[in-house]
Write the structure tokens for this entry.
Amino acid sequence: MHTKSLTELAHGLRSGEFSSVELTQHFLKRIQQHQDLNAYITVTEEIALQNAIAADTQLANGQVAALTGIPIAQKDIFCTLDIKTSCGSKMLDNFIAPYNATVIEKFNQAGAVLLGKLNMDEFAMGSSNETSYYGAVKNPWNVNTVPGGSSGGSGAAVAARLAACATGTDTGGSIRQPAAHCGITGLKPTYGRVSRYGMIAYASSLDQGGPMARSAEDAAILLQTMAGFDPKDSTSVDLIVPDYSAGLNNSLAGLKIGLPKEFFSNDLNSDMAATLETAINEYRKLGAEIKEVSMPNLKLAIPAYYVIAPAECSANLSRFDGVRFGYRCENPVDLTDLYTRSRGEGFGKEVKRRILMGTYALSTGYYDAYYVKAQKIRRLISDDFKNALTEVDVIMGPVTPTPAFGIGEKIADPIKMYLSDIYTIAINLAGLPALSIPAGFINGLPVGLQIIGNYFTEDRLLNIAHQYQQVTDWHQHTPKGFE
Amino acid sequence: MEWETVIGLEIHTQLATQSKIFSGASTAYGAEPNTQACAVDLGLPGVLPVLNEEAVRLAVIFGMAIEANIEPYSVFARKNYFYPDLPKGYQISQMDHPIVGQGHLDIEVDGETKRIGITRAHLEEDAGKSLHESFHGLTGIDLNRAGTPLLEIVSEPDMRSAKEAVAYMRKLHELVRYLGICDGNMQEGSFRCDANVSVRPKGQQAFGTRAEIKNINSFKFVEKAINHEIERQIELIENGGKVVQETRLYDSVKDETRSMRSKEEANDYRYFPDPDLLPVLIDESFKSQIKASLPELPQAKKHRFKTDYQLDDESATILTTSRPLADYFESTLKTSKSEPKLCANWITGDLSAALNKAGLEITDSPISDERLAGLLTRISDNTISGKIAKQVFDLLWQSIATADEIIAEQGLKQITDTGAIEAIIDKIIADNQGQVEQYRSGKDKVFAFFVGQVMKEMKGKANPAEVNKLLKTKLQA
């Protein structure tokens, strides 16, 4: 059952081939069998079975919604009513959310079964899932390597078939990079496409939730559920949500693909370059035209990001002060002690590093040199993409510089770690939609192809990904031991 | 040395919206602690602010009333600092792009009009309250107030005395209530003031170092706090000391200000645009809609009262201090069809005195505009004399009867029947021959005696003009 696509699962449930309870129990069993991956922070077994029983009743009554009875898992960054929502941090280890994120509400309305909450880098700050308070997640393709991050639990869970599909969030690559490392399909929608209400903020102007799934076809179904204007999120956009599945089979004849020369410079590892070249050739065969484009400011993306994101996070994380919820130090002697020890003990190293960087960047005397400058660069990078996207329909490139790296390999060197997002970060700065699809393997580890589109063209991106998945089977490979 | 004081005020007005500036929770005052704080007000993980359009509307109304630029583009920023009653660890405020730009307000001090510049007014959210009592050495937090919309109105350093500062504050207080954008309740903290005070040798251009006195919540305290601070600064300088830039707190019990924190200890608020909120764009149609609904402002109303009703400056000023009072005057005038001056005199005179004595506002007046109009009508048509009118007024205050009912019941109708008056005059002349002789021999003063006698006899109800006329004729006969 765990190898089926969402469409097949929905069909199986509706035709009575299996019940939601059976399906849910099956996934719960797999989750238990593969606990070693550490993909889940919380398994909501009881809730899952309740959801499944309710779904079976609905299925029997013919009251079916898009995901009725399908077991999915949520990144532990989305607030879930009465369920622990930790955001991968000791700070929120005791936090039972008193409300549902809008995305969670939408999944509930769509009839999904909640298997649990997925592991992630602490407060979504990391590229390897190693900053999680709950420990590193292992990559099912090679348990000595990282699954990527911050949505590492989501990547591993979907790759290992521990959930039919999952959600992720992407601030600088946190959906696409783990999708690439885990050999799944992950889409970061246009900023504003998916509500951020109830999604614990890391960097508000960059954060965006999106689907992580086995295929573009599944991702389209998930995005259909997640997308849409939310009056509770002022930055969500009031635009009609198209039918993301409707255009999946459109032809790619005449599609103009741009390859930024900055993405394919000598810095790119030759194995990666060769794999991507093969993938791009498939598109040629599908009728696409390939064109080189240039985005001269891309090299500034990482420094700009590491000013803007920490600046926003330094304020976003101020609410974790030990006063109203979350971790509080023992026996504080006064207010300063309460603050310093609660935050000092509750936050991990990487989170503290970014709070410090952001605080510094916003300080009097540094604000113009860092924050204002970074915002200007952000504008330049957006303009680069806008210009390129007047010449071509989409931009393609790598998702990561290398396949999944080893656990422990980069965690001691933040700069090295930050550079693993070098191909994804600029897209968040520009607010564009982008997805990662499996495009081959190097030494048994998956490689992702990144497809970047214009604002609100998720339907086109999914179509382009789906067409590739019709002529390749990279997305159908399953890691050994998880078949 | 002669010193000059320089004062600028920052006034926080709570805007009279139903719900908070970024959440749907109620802003009503006085609820049980933390019962009016929703997930957004508590700053729970994942929540997001959504701007209350009404707060924007009220800010724009204020901007128009002080003839300020309404900025077409304004931005909310985060002001970062830690405090237990600040749930998010930052306050959403406006920094570089406030909603209301440069404007002004005219004040009057000692008969002189002075224009006070208003630098800006910006929207922000209020914090909660820390409760230090009754928690046995611990501090309680009440977040009911967290997220209440505030308009912070920042003046130019244009005031030169505590008196001017108070006049400005009063004028502003009057204005925001006039506009209906703030209830002005100072006890409940709806209208709070921070004062920036410095002194400099008279004639010097450069400003002295200023101290900021925080959170003064009455007109009386503002005056006292500023005067105390001026004295402190002058004394300090004259004794060879130096004023340091700092925040001071006014202690109303001890009547002194004391240092809260110095400039060095001040927070670096690290303002930056709030990425959760879009810039506020105000277009012409939004502005013209508001302009059309704008009430007549005190200044314009005063001018109109002077020209249309021929009122003197003092009456017009008093009648336009509040909208309810001005409305009361106009509706009384309209119903009574009396002379505006008469109407104004009764309202600024007897009625105001009675209200003051009872500690009531015009809106709580026991005599409605309609009932006062009934009285004025009867004065105007000579049914009663001014003197009798005062009696009727007292009875109006004490009862719910109309003026006509009181006049009829008490038999206070003025006697204009010349026959009745003549009969009385004849009797008085007959009984007081000695005085008649005096009058006829040229002692004009005796005339008043006769008037008094007639009035006494007629219990004050005789028409005085008629009495005068008839007496004169009869005495000269």
